[in-house]
Amino acid sequence: MNLFKRVFVASLFMSLISFTTFSQIKNYQLPQTLRLLQLLDESVQLVHWNAEGAGAYNLHELTDEFHADLDGFKDQTAERLRVLRMYPEISHEKLNQNENIRLPEGKIKVQDALQYLISNYEVVIVTLEDKIKNSADDLVTQDLYIGLKGALQLQQWKLKIQQDQ
Description:
Blueprint: H1 3-28, H2 30-50, E1 51-52, H3 56-83, H4 92-95, E2 108-109, H5 110-133, H6 139-164
Parallel strand pairs: 1-2
Helix pairs in contact: 2-3, 2-5, 3-6, 5-6
């Protein structure tokens, strides 16, 4: 293949990738996923700091682990946005638009804190299930969603174990 044909094929391939990438991002709502992860992390942090009563220390340790994991999940999501030529943005105004994630205020009893978190995790997991179904033509983003869902399900399961003790 001569040089002209190679350059033509390469540029055609790159323009197809760019077209696909920009059209797909609208469907998968990665910025919304990043906002949801930020809200979930904020609720985990508030419980980490404010839970009181029997089992508070165990919950404190568990939420410390979850917070570290969530930082990694947020970073992976933000990096995927950058690969797709978008800039991650998180504003408090946009964070507050999601009424399904509840944030505890002030001190909170351990059992109430566990219920808050279990409910918040469920909101994010259900949202990810929809995103997985709708992202079949972008396997990398779909894989990100599948990984997030599995990791969040594991964290939710650990919270349910704490709740049953």
